[in-house]
Design a protein that fits this description.
Elements: E1 3-7, H1 8-16, E2 19-23, E3 26-29, E4 31-36, H2 46-51, E5 58-61, H3 65-78, E6 84-89, H4 93-96, H5 99-107, E7 112-118, E8 152-155, H6 162-173, E9 181-187, H7 188-191, E10 194-198, E11 205-208, H8 216-227, E12 232-236, H9 238-242, H10 246-256, E13 260-262, E14 277-280, H11 287-295, E15 298-302, H12 308-311, E16 323-328, H13 331-334, E17 340-343, H14 346-356, H15 367-384, H16 393-404, E18 410-413, H17 417-425, E19 434-436, H18 445-456, E20 462-467, H19 468-473, H20 477-484, E21 489-494, H21 499-507, H22 535-542, E22 545-549, H23 552-564, E23 569-574, H24 599-611
Parallel strand pairs: 2-11, 4-5, 4-6, 6-7, 7-9, 8-9, 12-13, 12-15, 13-14, 15-16, 16-17, 18-19, 18-20, 20-21, 21-23, 22-23
Antiparallel strand pairs: 1-10, 2-3
Helix pairs in contact: 3-5, 3-18, 8-14, 10-14, 11-15, 15-16, 16-17, 16-23
């Protein structure tokens, strides 16, 4: 057997450079590059290999390890999980900075390969700089923190272990049911150790992403449920997008007169004006979707995790006869809500079920068209309504969506009230241009993910819609965009605080506390004068172009100028607090204090207890 003598760092890159995936007959390179920051625990090992010129993996110099992970996730998500990036870091704080990003990737089922540095496997120079020592378990290091948020975790303490570790990493990264964050921890001494690796380990390897076919029995059970229902409703989840099942879902709904509603991950798979599209569902859903969900007697959960925002904490589906059909490649998700599980590919299942149910029509009648018309009227109102106090968040979205951005613009967001508004009212006119991270609702995802999406599709305009709270939390990859000459437009909707959470706080009768940008006042609390921030100048300080807007006219002018720029842009849009959209026929279970010195809080807690009787228990 022929061998190659390489360090572990060199072997990692040589292996990654030869990984390909094939899906529906189309083959492409799987690993495109590496994001990272070279701390001492990576720079002379894996970093030495990256600095060489004998591989085809582009290195992107991140500015924050969490941002690097988010950028890698944004890249993979925009590529519908068919291309990925690896992310490397030093040990200790560098590694721990990536844990949040790993959790975000895992919750959203987005493949990202994390390669954190680790302490010396030989333990001779211990404790090394940045090492976390655990007296009762010397095998435990900072990298163990990834265990809880990774779909696969491994630590390579001998060079020959790398082969099994990397094969398992690829197994999980390319599995639609299991994919998410994969962590292979690399001790800093082992990264530089050499081993005679078999040449065949570095041969081109194609990972075939197979569609799992539904069985005859599964289709018969699904058909029986469908034919027994009068008012079925489909929930279009992210699995519909990643399965490329948009056309199949459209055909299924048209053939059987079945409306569908969208999760954050599924939104944008089918255009907004499809006659069966009710827009978002759940806590941040539309009036149309939530009205019909309450009447539905069969919910077909297609490729969705059925999170609490989608189900209104299991409260939304109030028809006592309502049953669930779970179509998902993940058995874990297919069984949720006591569903009849169809553990299979969404596209193939919808096609087979449609054929089996030939001739079946729902009994929704004109109700679908009526609620959709009603909702369209409401969105038109929100999009054009003037706010006497200034510029409303809903109006900003309307101007951007209906008048200022082209239909093929990729819009990215991920936390705060912006995703709530966008799931309800954003009208997607081209598939895969709605890029939302809301499984983890991770603040700070937006700017970094926009960079990743731009790397994925450099010819497209990419716009990050981010609240001032999320922007202040993490926007450092804006400098990476400047460094790379990659144009992203970052629109900061500034309402001077964490007003999404302030809304929740105040809705439960708790006084406004700790969520607004205010200085410490005479009372000793944060209730003094408001803090004003110029985000346009902040963007300029990073090397981007900065524009500001306080009204519709200025917004139009700023966006027009931004679209004409060649590099990154930050637009500071001052919006009025509390000008986001409100909930529509929805409810969310929160843990309001049952005992309080404020009687209104206790009353709010009792109201939650009253609604619990309407919620399903499992």
């Amino acid at each position: 057997m022929k061998t190659l003598r390489l360090t572990v760092g060199q072997a990692v890159l040589k292996f990654l450079d030869q990984q390909y995936v094939e899906f529906d007959g189309k083959e492409n390179k799987f690993v495109e590059g590496v994001f990272g920051i070279f701390g001492h625990g990576v720079v002379v090992g894996l970093g030495e290999a990256l600095a060489a010129h004998d591989h085809n993996l582009r290195f992107y110099q991140a500015k924050n390890e969490q941002g690097a992970g988010h950028a890698a996730m944004g890249f993979a998500k925009q590529n519908n999980r068919l291309k990925i990036m690896a992310v490397c870091s030093s040990i200790g704080p560098g590694a721990l900075n990536m844990v949040t990003a790993a959790g975000t990737a895992t919750v959203n089922h987005i493949p990202v390969l994390f390669l954190p540095g680790d302490v010396f496997a030989c333990r001779q120079p211990d404790p090394v700089l940045q090492q976390v020592e655990t007296p009762n378990d010397y095998t435990n290091s900072a990298s163990d923190a990834f265990r809880a948020v990774s779909r696969y975790w491994d630590r390579v303490v001998r060079p020959e272990q790398l082969m099994v570790a990397m094969l398992n990493a690829m197994r999980v990264l390319t599995d639609p049911a299991e994919t998410g964050a994969v962590t292979v921890s690399l001790p800093q001494d082992v990264q530089g150790e050499a081993f005679d690796y078999p040449e065949e380990f570095f041969a081109k390897r194609v990972h075939h992403i197979e569609r799992r076919m539904p069985t005859e029995g599964q289709i018969k059970r699904a058909e029986s449920l469908l034919r027994g229902a009068e008012k079925p409703l489909v929930i279009c989840g992210g699995g519909v997008r990643y399965s490329k099942a948009g056309a199949a879902l459209q055909a299924f709904c048209a053939a059987h007169d079945i409306p569908f509603a969208e999760t954050q991950a599924g939104k944008g798979t089918i255009d907004w004006d499809n006659p069966w599209n009710l827009s978002g569902i759940g806590v941040t859903g539309s009036l149309a979707a939530n009205k019909l969900a309450k009447e539905s007697d069969l919910v077909i959960a297609a490729g969705t995790r059925l999170g609490d925002f989608t189900t209104c904490s299991k409260w939304l589906f109030q028809n006592p006869r309502c049953k669930f059909l779970g179509i998902n490649v993940s058995s874990f998700d297919a069984y949720k809500m006591n569903a009849e599980p169809i553990v299979a590919d969404v596209k193939l299942t919808l096609e087979a079920l449609s054929g089996a149910a030939n001739g079946y029509k729902s009994k929704w009648g004109a109700l679908v068209k009526n609620v959709k018309t009603e909702w369209n009227t409401e969105v038109d109102r929100l999009y054009s309504e003037d706010d006497p106090k200034g510029l409303s968040q809903a109006r900003v979205l309307g101007e951007l969506n209906d008048r200022l951005l082209e239909k093929d613009t990729i819009v990215v967001s991920g936390s705060g009230s912006i995703p709530s508004d966008m799931q309800r009212v954003w009208r997607v006119r081209k598939a895969d241009t709605y890029h939302m991270e809301y499984g983890f609702s991770c603040m700070g995802y937006e700017v970094a993910a926009a960079l990743g999406a731009k790397i994925a599709f450099p010819g497209s305009e990419v716009v990050a819609l981010v609240g001032d709270g999320a922007y202040t939390m993490l926007h450092t990859e804006l400098l990476t965009a400047v460094q790379e000459g990659l144009k992203i437009i970052v629109i900061v909707l500034d309402n001077a605080g964490f007003h999404c959470i302030d809304n929740l706080q105040n809705s439960q009768a708790i006084e406004h506390f700790g969520n607004e940008w205010k200085k410490r006042g005479a009372s000793g609390r944060l209730d003094g004068e408001s803090v004003s921030v110029d985000y346009a100048k902040n963007g300029e300080s990073w090397g981007a172009k900065g524009f500001s807007a306080r009204n519709v006219s200025e917004l139009k002018d700023a966006v027009k100028k931004a679209l004409a720029e060649k590099g990154p842009v930050v637009i500071d849009v001052k919006t009025t607090p509390k000008s986001m959209t409100k909930g529509y026929d929805s409810w969310w279970r929160v843990g309001t204090a049952q005992v309080s010195s404020n009687q209104a809080v206790e009353k709010a807690a009792k109201a939650i207890a009253a609604e619990l009787s309407k919620a399903r228990k499992y």
